[in-house]
Amino acid sequence: EVQLVESGGGLVQAGGSLRLSCAASGFTYDDYAIAWFRQAPGEEREGISCISMTDGDTYYVDSARGRVTISSTNAKNTVYLQMNNLKPEDTAVYYCAVGYGPSRCSRYGTTWSRYNYWGQGTQVTVSS
Length: 128
Hints:
Elements: E1 3-7, E2 10-13, E3 18-25, E4 32-39, E5 46-52, E6 58-60, E7 68-72, E8 78-83, E9 92-100, H1 104-108, E10 117-118, E11 122-127
Parallel strand pairs: 2-11
Antiparallel strand pairs: 1-3, 3-8, 4-5, 4-9, 5-6, 7-8, 9-10, 9-11
């Protein structure tokens, strides 16, 4: 059974940092990517970044580039999202998701429909 468990969210002041974790298990494929998304109340789901768990290629949406870093452990079972200089508009529930297939991240970026399994999310709240 595929499981994705996010952690690391919380309350932080504007300008602060958080590192989110996505613990992944139960995969039966070797070629897959993990992506981070977020969704604020009343807003659409928004992609942030993805990483290929095959070759380490990464992708960032323009708004995230420079403030966010995605990485994974050598064991490839945990993906991190380091977020710096957080702003109140970053307040949202953050989700990780896994997508199977070759070049999932480089080919599709954070197109949410290309990701097959999702975690339950972790709340990030940034106060002004």
